[in-house]
Amino acid sequence: MSDCIFCKILSGEIPSKALYEDDDVFAFEDLNPQAPLHVLIIPKTHIETINNLDNHNSAVIGKLYLAAKKIAFDAGYSNEGYRVVMNCGEAAGQTVFHIHLHLLAGRPLNWPPG
Ligand code: AMP
Ligand code: ZN
Description:
The chain is of the alpha+beta class.
C-alpha cells in the first residue's frame, strides 16, 4: 500500500530501528515509546485491521506472537513479564492501519488499560 507508513518502513523508504525479521514478520522500535521496551511487530503483508483477518491471512498472527516472545526473551523480560496488545479501530486507539502487535515491558503495566 503506497500510503501506508508501515509498508514504507518495510520497503526501507522510512527508516526504523529493526529488532527482528523473518520471511513473514518485521519488528522495530516504536518512535514514541510508552515503556523502556516498546516494539511494534508487523506482518510483511498489508492487513488494515483485525476486521480484515480471515482464514487465508490469519496464520501470520501466531508468528507475530512468536516474534514477541523471542524479542521479550532476548531483552530479558520473559520472567518479569510483558504485555502484547493490538488495537483495532479508532475507538481503541489504532492510528496506523497496518496491523501491529505492541510489545511493552520494563515498567509496571496497569490493568485495565486506559
Ligand atoms: P496504534 O496507535 O496502535 O495504531 O500504534 C501506532 C504506533 O506506531 C504508535 O505507538 C506510534 O508511536 C508508532 N509509530 C508511528 N510512526 C512510526 C514510525 N515511523 N516508526 C516507529 N513507530 C511509529
Ligand atoms: Zn501497510
